């Protein structure tokens, strides 16, 4: 490998975060939706909380679509970075071999 480095744990943490954010928000929405009216207080407040939770559901679905796309892009970035790292390592090996070959032929020419 070359000196070009990117810590894989960064990508793994991003994947984990983006993969679970939608589920975690949906869990919060379901909790709000299932709120017991006697705990929250006035009936109108409970109704407003439930309405908010229902509207939030649409947003969570949209967020899920976008985070899924973000995970795909994170995966592509990781793949491309690995490819570039390999290419750079190969070019450095080639340059080193060329340089060594050039030095060896100069020594023989003396």
Helix run count? 3
Query: Which stretches are low in confidence, meaning pLDDT under 50 for 5 or more residues running?
Result: none
Provide the succession of SSEs.
HHH
Q: Determine the oligomeric state from the structure.
A: single chain
| Biggest sheet character | none
Instruction: Summarize the amount of helix as a percent range.
Output: over 70%
First-to-last CA distance: 35 Å
* DSSP strand count: 0
Overall geometry comes to rod-shaped
Instruction: Kindly estimate the percentage of residues that lie in beta strands according to DSSP.
Output: under 5%
Structural class: mainly alpha
* Chain-averaged pLDDT: 79
Using the CA coordinates, give the radius of gyration.
28 Å
Would you give an account of this structure?
The chain has 110 residues and is an all-alpha fold. It is 88% helix and 0% strand. The protein is built from three helices and no strands. α1 runs antiparallel to α3. The radius of gyration is 28 Å and the shape is rod-shaped. The model has no long low-confidence stretch (mean pLDDT 79).
């Amino acid at each position: 490998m070359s000196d070009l480095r990117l810590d894989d744990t960064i990508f793994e943490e991003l994947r984990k975060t983006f993969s679970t954010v939608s589920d975690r928000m949906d869990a919060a929405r379901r909790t709000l939706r299932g709120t017991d009216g006697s705990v929250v207080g006035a009936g109108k407040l409970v109704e407003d909380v439930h309405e908010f939770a229902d509207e939030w559901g649409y947003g969570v679905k949209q967020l899920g679509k976008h985070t899924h796309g973000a995970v795909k892009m994170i995966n592509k970035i990781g793949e491309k970075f690995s490819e570039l790292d390999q290419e750079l390592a190969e070019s450095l090996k080639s340059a080193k071999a060329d340089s060594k070959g050039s030095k060896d032929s100069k020594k023989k020419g003396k």
